[in-house]
Amino acid sequence: MGSLLLTPEQTAARGVTLKPCLAVVGSGRVLLGVEGNVYDLARGERLFATPVGGLGSFACVEEGPLLAVAGTALGYPKGGRLQAALELPLAEMQVACGGRGRVLLFGGRLGEA
Question: How many CA atoms lie within 13 A of 84 on its CB side?
Fold first, then answer.
């Protein structure tokens, strides 16, 4: 797989705003989330796309499932899309691994759920 470098000037010229998220999962794989999609950089493939509302954050739980937040939904990838599993109390919350199989949810914007 080749390399791709996008500078702020290149993305602005194309009318694209990048808000990338990176995660390194336990196996050493690097996942990149940008423009509502999550990619496995080692395999060079898209794992899933999020619905309207976009990707807020994502994390892997100790070699377990990949979880993601989009809008007010916490979900997991299924069939190339984000399958909503839980409605969150706030929009734009962040998800992270807490160790020992725990999931941490934090942040968010009041009045936007």
Answer: 13
Sign of CA dihedral 66, 24, 110, 12: negative
CA distance 23 to 4: 18
Rounded to 5 degrees, φ, ψ at 102 are -90, 150
Contacts by residues 88-92 (CB-CB < 8 Å, ≥ 24 positions apart): 88/113, 89/113, 92/56
Whole-prediction pTM value?
A: 0.69
Classify 36 in phi/psi space as left (phi over 0), alpha (psi -120 to 50) or beta: left
Question: Which pLDDT value is given to residue 63?
Answer: 62
pLDDT, tens digit, for every residue of 14-52? Answer: 665 556 677 777 667 788 888 788 888 888 888 888 865
CB atoms within 10 A of CB 68: 26
Q: Which residues, other chains included, contact 60 with Cβ-Cβ below 8 Å and sequence gap of 6+?
A: 23, 25, 26, 31, 66, 67, 97
